[in-house]
Design a protein that fits this description.
This protein is an alpha/beta fold. The chain is built from 22 helices and 24 strands.
Amino acid sequence: MKISELNLLVVEDDDFQRLTLLNMLRSLGIRSIAGARNGKQALEMIREAAPNPFNVALCDLNMPEMDGMEFLRHLGQMHLNIAIIITSALDGKLLTSVGRMTKMYGMQLLGAIEKPILLTHLRELLAKYDNAEKTTPPLPPARNFTLDEILQGVRANQFEPYFQPKVDLKTGRIIGSEALARWIHPQHGVVGPYEFIPLLEQSGNIDDLTFLMLQKSAAQCRVFHDTGRLLTVSVNLSLSSLSDASLADRITHVVRAAGLEPQYVVLEITESAAMTDIASALENLARLCMNGFSLSIDDYGTGYSSLQQLTRIAFSELKIDQSFIKDFADNDSLRIVVESSIDMAHKLRVKSVAEGVETQQAWDTLKSAGCDTVQGYLIAKPMEAKAFSDFVANYSHKSAPGPTQAVQDHSKTRILIVDDDDFTRKILIRVLQDFGFAKIVDADSAHTAIKLFEEHAFDLVITDIDMQGMNGIEFIQLIRSGKAHTKPDTRVVVLSSFSQTEVLGSAFALDINGFLVKPIIPAVVYEKIIQALSERLRLRAPVAYEAVKTELRSLPSFEHHPAGTHGGAAITMAEHKTHNGNDVLHTHNLTIQRLRPGMILRENLYLMDGSLLLSSGHAFSELSINRLNDLRALLKENSFAVQEVPNQ
């Protein structure tokens, strides 16, 4: 329907403002317009206009006899298909609140305008009417399934995961999906979750569905990997399931039985579940994290948690609820809440995810706010596995939604991959090529890599640690000590398992530029490589690296060395200047986030298993602070004693 064809009602008590608004609407070509002095008169006109109903009502709030809010309440109870535009000179926060109330009464809100009203704004809101009329889906008829019917469907294997893509906002690439349960009913077709999940949770039967979805989602994710798409999959966990002390082990068994590593599975728990004080629930979450799963706080902002409660869980993703995302681009209060949540996630070193992204404006606003990942109908609705696979294949050849951005050129970056596992090298090469890296060379051993240095100059070396002949630590030592004919500013990223704490200490001492944990996750690879290439590289004198221990007992290839060989974790002892007696160096207990280059560590720093990582006296650099951030989950303490050196 064109704007000129709309039938409008203006509800405004001020005669001059009502007349002005009527004239503005006529200037837009609208001919069918009526005016009312208050809500009571407007309701009478609506009842009398039944043969030719109003399409849109423009409503002031502060009016005599019946104000705008009472008018909207009565209008909502009449269940008429009239769209609303709120107009008022009152505070914008109040308009936002009344707008939310209007939606809760079941009415279509086109928007709210603060007076004085501009013609351009009025035209924009009226243009939404035709759009909304076309895109509003009809509500499905309500169906009341019994618990027995639902459980029979679970036993008959009628439930399937539908996958909704998650997109990285920086690269525009699909990095994973959320698996959402759908009941493929033999008579009713596809049945949504709100018709069966509440009853399963209330009756204590949610576990059967949870494990069915987990098994099918993990198996399908394995299929995605086998076809060259290294995506993660997110699966929802119910609070009621967390009370079972064996849950973590059962989940781990199901995922690994499907041939999938836990690192590719994100387990979403609601904010209320993260608040629980049940010891077995907290143990399950900690054990799942220890087993390699990522934890996501789902529906963030809808619960009643405190920030202190949220920090009890080692979560790696904060998922902002769609109720905040919808309309937040036009709502100052909601935008502040969303931006603050994104900022908090970054300060906690976790990913921010926005769900319910349905408009280009929301995408653009989230991108400018620094949000990491988005999902929603703007990208795609949840779909069955085959459709999702086809969607990913086609999407990879399209530019992501949003304005064209300048893409960083990686085509000239020269990368060497060193790993004795052929499959790992092939996966890494494919991932890097997908991100635009073109100059990639691989080697199956450190000795082969050293020969390549004679012919090639590399910007970045990605090396495994556990290799035959020469382990990765020995290889990196040759690079850092200047004995491998590499560029002085060569960056080094280590492929390792965080269970090998002895390796971590030695790698730390060799001033590497990052850790990558197997199995390979594309989004993590890209993030670590970009950080490695961009961080400031201030290396010590080559001779300093020759003292680092390279014989590692944690590796199968370790052989016993004579007594007197340096033992324990390798420790970086950076030099720092001495200060005269007039300098007062105050010691503070600081978290990693508050560390700055030049600060001096004043106590030994240990990993959780008791391994020494850094000795007292270490002078922090940007490099060592970044590596501590990489290892923060393995540190024994969250804060440590440091001194800030005064300026010379």
